[in-house]
Design a protein that fits this description.
- By secondary structure, the chain is an alpha/beta fold.
- It folds into two domains: 248 residues, nicotinate phosphoribosyltransferase (Alpha-Beta Barrel), CATH 3.20.140; 174 residues, TIM Barrel (Alpha-Beta Barrel).
- 39% of the residues lie in helices and 18% in strands.
- It is built from 16 helices and 19 strands.
- The strands form four sheets. The protein has a seven-stranded antiparallel beta sheet with strand order 13-12-1-5-3-17-18. Strands 7-6-11-10-9-8 form a six-stranded parallel beta sheet.
- The longest helix is centred in the first third of the chain and has 24 residues.
């Protein structure tokens, strides 16, 4: 999915308009989230690596130019020019795994206007989705501290790219791995998986199914026990465990996929412990999200890990983010949108983050790029003249950053149900630039 045509038509019609008018001076665009979905107190920046890859490789293939030519919508001379377009601009961005808040730019593009305009759709597409899923996954991590969480969402993802990128986003947010084998290969994410109910049902006897699987997968004996009678199946697992012990094959875990998971887990744990199988874990799955995980945690359910699928990969309670990629400066002049409910702050900006004496996040200030403030600047250079400045970060590096970011959150931002009152401070310099811009536009 690297085609330069992976964009909206109006990007190309605007480019032709710019070409006709000779508008190719430097433009500054910033990507941000205007307003958070309900019950989201923070978001987690993700998808930057894919955005950089897209910008590095941006180019139109001959067949794509031929397709545009046959639409009859474009000037032939414009298409000849478009055929040579590449990205030669600068990009500053928040590192992946950084917590951010409304109206804070997570990425800034500085490039000739046609280039900066063209990339809008795909940049939103890439950054919005992984940020959405990483933020949902981070909430799951906060709700189930110390548990092994696994992405199970591929089969319900909205397409193959979504499934693969969701696995990446969940992993960088703190999940232990994914069932998605393609994501495992592409991103070196640990992969997890055992059996489906069909494996059990294909056998005439449940115990025979367990035995056959254990002998086939001696290093990965996780047995699904809720196909028929969950507690009766545990007794069969216990009987089989003694037989397998003679072959030095441990029963790693049992998995429950339906029913009252917390109550069943407690009963299963009692049976396993009584049989001396204290090292055999319990893994649960089935329509899980951060709210169910939080409830299990409150109930002290003895579940060691969870497979989180549909509700994660679709971010079911908040399936989109109100992302915007807006022009903030053109030809050296600050620009801003003033539409009702969609006003923007003009000019190039920076965010400075402050922490209290305990290292807990105390607040952010949004200001102009040239107005240095106390705190940690969040936007950092990542591309110059169309080339990346640093090798791709490993997912392990991003995971460590994410863990530190979540650890530094104040308690109210970690709440799943209660919305935080944290607001981003707007600097005097940015307010003054806005006033000057409004004066120039004749708005005041």
């Amino acid at each position: 999915m690297t085609s330069a045509l992976l964009t909206d038509l109006y990007q190309l019609t605007m480019l032709q308009g710019y070409w006709h008018e000779g508008m190719e001076e430097t433009a500054v665009f910033e990507l941000f989230v205007r307003k958070f979905p309900p019950r989201r107190n923070f978001l987690l920046a993700a998808g930057l690596e894919q955005a950089i890859e897209y910008l590095e490789n941006l180019a139109f293939e001959q067949q794509e130019i031929a397709y545009l030519r046959q639409t009859g919508l474009f000037d032939d001379r414009f298409l000849d020019r478009l055929a040579g377009l590449t990205f030669s601009g600068d990009v500053d961005a928040m590192p992946e795994g950084t917590v951010f808040f409304p109206n804070e730019p997570i990425l800034r593009v500085v490039a000739p206007l046609p280039q900066a305009q063209l990339v809008e759709t795909r940049l939103i597409n890439l950054l919005q989705f992984q940020t959405l899923i990483a933020s949902k996954a981070a909430r799951c991590v906060l709700a189930a501290p110390g548990k092994n969480l696994v992405d199970f969402g591929l089969r319900r993802a909205h397409g193959s790219e979504a499934g693969i990128l969701a696995a990446r986003a969940a992993y960088l947010a703190g999940f232990g791995g994914s069932s998605n084998v393609a994501a495992g290969m592409k991103f070196s994410i640990p992969v997890f998986g055992t059996m489906a109910h069909s494996y059990i049902m294909a056998h005439d006897d449940e115990l025979a199914a367990f035995r056959g699987f254990a002998l086939s997968q001696p290093q990965n004996v996780v047995l699904l026990i809720d196909t028929y009678d969950t507690l009766a199946a545990v007794d069969k697992v216990i009987a089989l465990a003694g037989e397998l012990a003679q072959r030095n094959i441990p029963v790693k875990a049992v998995r429950i996929d339906s029913g009252d998971l917390a109550t069943l887990a407690k009963e299963v744990r009692k049976k396993l412990d009584a049989a001396g199988l204290r090292q055999t874990g319990i893994f649960a799955s089935g329509d899980l999200d951060e709210y169910t995980l939080q409830r299990f945690n409150a109930q002290n359910a003895p579940i060691d890990g969870f497979g989180v699928g549909t509700r994660l990969t679709t971010s079911s309670d908040a399936p989109y983010l109100n992302c915007a990629y807006k022009l903030q400066e053109y030809a050296g002049i600050p620009r801003r949108k003033v539409s009702s409910g969609k006003q923007t702050w003009p000019g190039r900006k920076q965010i400075y983050r402050r922490y209290d004496e305990k290292g807990v996040l105390a607040g952010d200030i949004l200001t102009t790029a040239d107005d240095a403030q106390e705190g940690e600047p969040l936007l950092r250079p990542v591309m110059r003249k169309g080339k990346r400045l640093h090798p791709p970060e490993s997912l392990e590096t991003i995971r460590r950053r994410t863990a530190m970011e979540l650890e530094c959150l104040p308690a109210d931002l970690k709440e799943l149900e209660r919305e935080s009152t944290l607001t981003v401070e707007i600097s005097t310099a940015l307010r003054e630039l806005t006033r000057q811009t409004d004066l120039r536009l004749g708005l005041i």
